Amino acid sequence: MTGRLTRRSAITSALALSACGRQASSQPVINDIPLKSVAATPVGICVQQHQLQDPAFADLFVRHYAQLTPEWEMKMEYILQDDGSFRFDRPDAIAAFARDHGIRLYGTTLVWYNQEMPAFQKLDGRGKPFADAYRNYILAVAGRYRGQAVGWDVVNEAIDDNGTDLRQSIWTRNLGVDEHMILAFHHAKEADPDAVLFLNEFHLENMPKKRATFMRLVERLLKAGAPIGGLGTQSHLDLDSTRPGLCRAAMRDLASFGLPLHVSELDISLGEKPNYARLPDLRLRQADIARELAQAYMDLPQQQRFAFTLWGLRDQDSWLRSSKNHDPNDQGLPFDDAGRPKPMFQALAETLSG
């Protein structure tokens, strides 16, 4: 009896065959099948402008991924100058690379509590001038990439680390806690009516209490008329606290709004104090978490699968290496320092094939 060859069976067979004959102590040799050629959803990474000038980085990226997010050069920290002027050289270069290579551009982030720039600090407490500058910034940035950016993180990380309260910032102080988010979504919609506008947050998998707070916030904003088009879960996961079932539960809860979902910044840390003598086992556990998250995403209705984004290309490119809260040798991404695929890559290739 001959069965139909599915995308998943094809990719799984190819990956399995490519591993045959390897030595037990060696890095798993996985067939270099372009991830974007088998994935049934857009898969992307974050990039910096200088990385795109490195041929090794650019070649590996373009081969495997169909979407990019500027890691920080499309954020206020780069664009907004102290005198209130805008700097677009690097974000324009990133946007041009995406356009030239047929890659989707995703923008992050328009409003973030963590970036209170001097130009806004000068307007703190001044009412209408502050509100006008807020609108003007969003219109200028989102409007510049109108028609190219497929989506935006409009508001990022609005929930406090305690999982219960909303963050206080220069935006809440001048425009209101919920109100500044409602305004941001309306301004972004005015700037680019066709882009999908996201509310983005982290620790929605590992902190169910925070997820519940996030969902109440979404309900309020939607009820107030904010044109939220999708929800982003950053999915910065780790081997220490990401227990089986957490990713499935989070995806199920977030999907209940019926909005598109974006896995927006995925990496999976090996943990606070990983035992590198057991690295093969750690990588297999990492792959299991990636597989669960990807399967929960692929179980969504097709119209709710916006994109699946990794926060970096190779381990050496990850913010985990430079974070004071992580091991400087952490390995949270599907490709190792040399650009070789790891078990996490195989898990994603098999699962995202649909």
Question: What's the layout of helices and strands?
Answer:
Blueprint: H1 7-19, H2 35-38, E1 43-47, H3 55-64, E2 67-70, H4 76-79, H5 89-100, E3 104-112, H6 118-121, H7 128-144, E4 149-156, H8 170-175, H9 179-191, E5 196-201, H10 208-223, E6 230-233, E7 236-238, H11 246-255, E8 261-269, H12 279-298, E9 305-310, H13 343-352
Parallel strand pairs: 1-2, 1-9, 2-3, 3-4, 4-5, 5-6, 6-8, 7-8, 8-9
Helix pairs in contact: 1-13, 7-9, 11-12, 12-13
What's the number of domains?
1
CATH C-level name: Alpha Beta
Contiguous helical run count: 13
Counting copies of identical and different chains, the oligomeric state is single chain
What's the overall geometry? globular
Tell me, rounded to a whole number, the average pLDDT.
92
Radius of gyration: 20 Å
Q: Please state roughly what percent of the residues sit in beta strands, choosing from under 5%, 5-15%, 15-25%, 25-35%, 35-45% or over 45%.
A: 15-25%
Structural class: alpha/beta
- Strand arrangement within the widest β-sheet reads 1-2-3-4-5-6-8-9
What is the number of strand segments?
9
Low-confidence regions = 1-30
The CATH topology is TIM Barrel
Helix content: 25-40%
- CATH architecture level-2 label: Alpha-Beta Barrel
CATH superfamily: Glycosidases
SSE series: HHEHEHHEHHEHHEHEEHEHEH
